[in-house]
Specification:
alpha/beta; 45% helix; 311 residues; 2 domains
């Protein structure tokens, strides 16, 4: 994805087919993989917004008529998300759909008269984050957040250099992305990009929780093979709680003393939308660079597709 293609996503204005009902007390988004990312991205932009994600078949246990259910499947054929939409529809719950054209989910929306938004197709779901996010924000009446996304701009050359620097640091490594809890989505989506686009095992966690368990595993020699491969990437945010900042700095110091490699990735200062977009773009480009360096197509996911075909 080029910077211009990213700007096209940010500038896109979705349209909804069908009538939306009254606002609900909470929102439950059903989605898998890249199609589930918009719910988490919304919480990144507005941590107080009552949205939760459901990554499974059917509906979560705490489901009732007070919620709006939004089924998101970029392909329109994700079976877990289809079951989510069908179950919500069967129970008469308020339902809306976000999908690409031509899939089973669009057909369901048309047959049942469910409000829906069709997003531009032709790319991988994880790369369509901002199309899907704009669609979700429209359904939820949060055009204010969409406008913040449309206003985002940053220096593309600096971002590309940062991506290349990160790519070199993570070559032949096991990337481990750490962030504060409030920025945990950035670590999570970076892991996904490394898994799917970079074709690399990766992990993600958040401060301060990791200080109470995960960090201990990098203090001993066994299994040393994992320790030698580990590359910690810290998302550093000047607006984080100072207590979290101290934890990050001490963690980096202790890992350095143990010869563990630590890379710090500073976040943009300013609006949450700019932090989201610029950090996402850097890790997105780094993952693609890592795949290309190994002569692997970053867009194809043959194992995942084979698994789905054999279900």
């Amino acid at each position: 994805m080029t910077y211009d293609e990213l700007q096209q996503q940010l500038a896109w204005r979705p349209q909804v087919t069908g009538r939306l009902g009254l606002p609900r007390q909470r929102v439950i988004v059903g989605g898998m993989g890249g199609s589930a990312l918009p719910a988490h991205a919304l919480r990144f932009l507005d941590s107080a917004f009552p949205v939760e994600a459901h990554h499974d078949y059917d509906l979560p246990e705490r489901s009732d008529h007070t919620a709006l259910y939004v089924a998101i499947s970029y392909s329109g054929n994700t079976e877990e998300t289809l079951s989510f939409a069908q179950r919500a529809g069967a129970l008469g719950y308020a339902l809306a759909i976000v999908t690409d054209a031509g899939g089973d989910l669009e057909q369901f929306a048309q047959e049942k008269g469910v409000p829906h938004v069709i997003v531009p197709g032709g790319i991988q779901p994880r790369d369509a984050l901002f199309y899907l996010l704009h669609a979700l924000l429209l359904l939820l009446g949060r055009e204010d957040l969409s406008e913040q996304l449309r206003a985002v701009s940053f220096d593309a050359e600096i971002a590309e250099r940062n991506a290349q620097t990160l790519s070199r640091a993570l070559a032949n490594a096991f990337p481990i992305f750490y962030a504060s809890r409030r920025n945990g989505f950035l670590a999570h989506t970076a892991k996904i990009q490394m898994n799917e686009s970079g074709k690399m095992p990766a992990a993600a966690n958040v401060f301060p929780e990791l200080n109470h368990n995960e960090m201990q595993s990098y203090d001993v020699a066994a299994p040393e093979a994992v320790g030698q491969l580990a590359r910690f990437v810290l998302f550093v945010d000047q607006s984080d709680d100072p207590r979290i900042a101290r934890r990050m700095a001490l963690f980096a110091k202790l890992m350095g003393e143990r010869s563990r490699a630590v890379v710090q990735l500073p976040l943009a200062q300013g609006m949450r939308a700019e932090q989201l977009v610029s950090a996402w773009y850097v890790t997105h480009q780094a993952a693609r660079s890592l795949a290309s360096a190994r002569h692997i197509d970053p867009d194809q996911v043959p194992l995942i597709e084979s698994f789905k075909a054999q279900l």
